[in-house]
Design a protein that fits this description.
With 238 residues, the chain is α+β, with helices and mostly antiparallel strands. The protein contains three helices and eleven strands. The strands form three sheets. The protein has a five-stranded antiparallel sheet. The longest helix is centred in the last third of the chain and has 29 residues. It is elongated, with a radius of gyration of 28 Å.
Length: 238
């Protein structure tokens, strides 16, 4: 798993209020506050996606709902059993749908569909499994994302860097205004990253040949960002 270089950015929102212009935190409070400054810092990193997610489905159409349901159930059950034989692959069944088919406002049949979701840190194993399952199921989407463990690890490192950047900027601003120290009034820490975008497959991929090659997959990366915002109050020398 590769993590790109960490980047930090700094922003200052000055709301400095000198003694001639007292600033109150909220209306109705009798206590006035002075020399408050809002700061914002951030740290980001390009993180390699390490989790592959695939959604497949079984779909049947016809005039007998019971027979269609039985066929779909058998296909999904077989696929789930196949997935459980592959180490390191999580499988989850998704929504089950039975819907009518109309032509010229007349009921002409039924459509039964159910999906399964496969997830794994081992893209090669999942790719091989997809190759097997595509003989009976349709591939709806493939996407990559960052695992919770990797996201937490990167998030912790970026949080430390963003806080350190905030403190350095607070020290710099304090000295520039001729003060020796400041008091931290409040701070908020938020994380953000670009959500994964599933690659939607064509609907006519229902029955690929068993000899078809496994899908070519490229994990890519996404930016994870931690942002720290806070307010400091410059302290008068005593």
């Amino acid at each position: 798993m590769k993590i790109g270089p960490l980047k930090a950015a700094f922003f200052i929102l000055l709301s400095l209020n000198l003694a001639a212009s007292p600033f109150s935190l909220s209306a109705g409070e009798g206590v006035h506050h002075y020399d408050r400054i809002q700061l914002r810092s951030s740290a980001s990193a390009e993180v390699e996606n390490d989790t592959l997610i695939a959604v497949l489905y079984a779909q049947q159409e016809g005039s007998e709902p019971a027979a269609l349901s039985d066929s779909v159930n058998r296909l999904i059950t077989q696929a789930v059993s196949e997935a459980k034989l592959s180490e390191g692959i999580k499988v989850q069944t998704l929504g089950y749908q039975t819907s009518p088919i109309y032509q010229q406002q007349r009921l002409t049949g039924w459509r039964v569909r159910q999906s399964i979701r496969l997830q794994s840190l081992h893209s090669d194993r999942l790719s091989q499994l997809l190759n097997k399952l595509q003989s009976s199921l349709a591939l709806e989407s493939i996407s990559y994302t960052i695992s919770p463990a990797q996201r937490e690890k990167v998030g912790e490192a970026l949080t430390l860097q963003a806080i350190d950047a905030f403190r350095k900027r607070a020290d710099l601003v304090t000295k520039q205004f001729g003060r020796e120290r400041y008091r931290l009034v409040e701070m908020a820490i938020e994380s953000s990253d670009r959500p994964y975008q599933p690659f939607n497959m064509r609907a006519n991929m229902m029955a690929l040949e068993r000899s078809a090659a496994a899908p070519a997959l490229e994990a890519g990366s996404q930016t994870v960002r931690i942002e720290v915002t806070g307010t400091i109050e410059l302290q008068l020398d005593q």
